[in-house]
């Protein structure tokens, strides 16, 4: 008899638990969706802009504010049609660290204040180039928004992050670390309280050396629980003091692999990405990638056009490349975005049957589309995104002279790459 009574009771309990679980799950889901999300993109340099663009095409339904420094890197007209709601900065290409207070900052704060008027619980996802971490602090934190409503993603520019002169990475610097951490936290609270709101000088958030590039704060910023710092090689940033290392092991520095991030996009998102960077594959196939050889070598340039070389020495380097690789590859030249070749420079390349790719097109985007290419030329952050074995040469006489961290990574990533120098 007891057994017969127990069975219905157990069934009732099970049903109650199931219903309770459904209600709890639904309540949690509704709680998660009880706010509107907004994205803010503040991008210097090409690589972080491309990372951000991948985020843009993946989140094009999220209302967004976009500013980037490398003018013409993206197709602004297409951005306007792609986003369901977009505020495009009026200072793309001309805003910078010097005029930040009067250009970019008011736009961002206006965007945020309008969002908060619509939804006081609004959440903001900020994407910023790591070197300019302070732009987020001075534009967003100054408004006193609760920390739980802000998420920050810092993207490495590719090389500069590894050559900062951060004191806390050195030996016997634990006291310095504690002092700098205390100062950073204090100044962050002062910014949130509005202490620097009317200041014309933004250097107060750098360290005593007065340069963001020397600042320990880029690293200390990654200790904030709502900040993630993405680098291709975070393992290259080491801390000689064991106590500092123990603290920084708790930071949110994360590894990012460019092609993995790109390949995580859907086909439609990739199509949007290519339209944003103005890469029409059909047009490129017809104009540039049309050789019967089926293999391509792209020489990457720098600024100024000849770099550290004279015109004759640079031409000699081009001639060496042509003579060595002309039979196997069709050779192309990709100028630096801020060093568009003149007619005379274009004619010089034409002497070697070398076509010039559009300067503003990010070289990284080409590597996403074409698998049958090799690269070589002036060392830059671009090569941090190149597959191992795809770099044939550098215009440099000694690997130690390569820009950091390429010199450090040479034996691991570029072993076998030729070091070329002018031949008289």
**Dominant shape:** globular
Percentage of residues in DSSP E strands: 5-15%
Distance separating the two termini? 106 Å
Major beta-sheet overview: 7 strands, parallel
Radius of gyration equals 26 Å
Poorly predicted regions = 207-213
Order of helices and strands: HEHEHEHEHEHHEHEHHHEHEHEHEEHE
Secondary structure category = alpha/beta
Helical content stands at: 25-40%
Q: What's the arrangement of strands in the largest beta sheet?
A: 3-2-1-4-5-6-7
Q: Determine the mean pLDDT.
A: 88
Itemize the secondary structure elements and their pairings.
Layout: H1 2-32, E1 37-43, H2 46-58, E2 64-68, H3 76-82, E3 86-88, H4 104-118, E4 123-129, H5 133-139, E5 150-155, H6 174-192, H7 217-221, E6 227-231, H8 242-248, E7 253-255, H9 258-263, H10 267-276, H11 281-287, E8 296-300, H12 311-325, E9 330-334, H13 343-350, E10 355-356, H14 363-369, E11 373-377, E12 391-395, H15 406-413, E13 418-420
Parallel strand pairs: 1-2, 1-4, 2-3, 4-5, 5-6, 6-7, 8-9, 8-11, 9-10, 11-12, 12-13
Helix pairs in contact: 2-10
């Amino acid at each position: 008899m007891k057994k017969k009574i127990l069975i219905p009771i157990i069934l009732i309990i099970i049903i109650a638990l199931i219903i309770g679980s459904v209600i709890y799950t639904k309540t949690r889901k509704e709680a998660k969706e009880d706010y509107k999300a907004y994205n803010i993109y503040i991008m210097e340099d090409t690589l972080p802009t491309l990372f951000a663009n991948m985020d843009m095409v993946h989140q094009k339904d999220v209302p967004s504010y976009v500013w980037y420094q490398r003018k013409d890197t993206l197709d602004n007209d297409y951005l306007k049609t792609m986003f369901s709601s977009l505020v495009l900065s009026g200072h793309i290409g001309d805003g910078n660290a010097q005029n930040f207070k009067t250009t970019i900052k008011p736009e961002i704060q206006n965007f945020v204040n309008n969002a908060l008027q619509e939804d006081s619980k609004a959440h903001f996802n900020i994407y910023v180039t790591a070197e300019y971490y302070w732009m987020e602090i001075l534009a967003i934190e100054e408004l006193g928004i609760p920390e739980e409503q802000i998420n920050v993603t810092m993207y490495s520019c590719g090389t500069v992050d590894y050559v900062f002169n951060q004191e806390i990475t050195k030996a016997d610097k634990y006291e310095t670390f504690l002092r700098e951490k205390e100062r950073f936290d204090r100044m962050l609270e002062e910014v949130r309280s509005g202490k620097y709101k009317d200041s014309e000088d933004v250097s107060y958030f750098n360290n005593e050396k007065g340069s963001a590039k020397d600042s320990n704060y880029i690293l200390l910023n990654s200790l904030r629980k709502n900040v993630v710092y993405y680098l291709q090689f975070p393992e290259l940033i080491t801390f000689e003091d064991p106590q500092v290392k123990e603290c920084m092991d708790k930071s949110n520095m994360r590894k990012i692999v460019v092609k993995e991030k790109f390949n995580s996009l859907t086909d439609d998102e990739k199509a949007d990405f290519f339209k944003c960077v103005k890469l029409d594959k059909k047009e490129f196939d017809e104009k540039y990638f049309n050789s019967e050889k089926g293999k391509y070598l792209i020489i990457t340039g720098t600024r100024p056009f000849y770099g550290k070389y004279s015109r004759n020495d640079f031409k000699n380097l081009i001639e060496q490349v042509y003579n060595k690789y002309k039979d196997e590859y069709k050779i192309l030249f990709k100028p630096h975005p801020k060093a568009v070749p003149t007619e005379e420079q274009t004619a010089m390349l034409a002497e070697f049957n070398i076509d010039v790719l559009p300067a503003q097109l990010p070289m990284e985007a080409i590597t996403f589309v074409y698998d049958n290419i090799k690269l070589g030329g002036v060392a830059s952050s671009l090569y941090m995104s190149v597959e191992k074995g795809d770099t044939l040469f550098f215009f440099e006489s000694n690997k130690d002279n390569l820009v950091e961290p390429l010199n450090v990574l040479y034996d691991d990533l570029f072993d076998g790459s030729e070091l070329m120098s002018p031949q008289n």
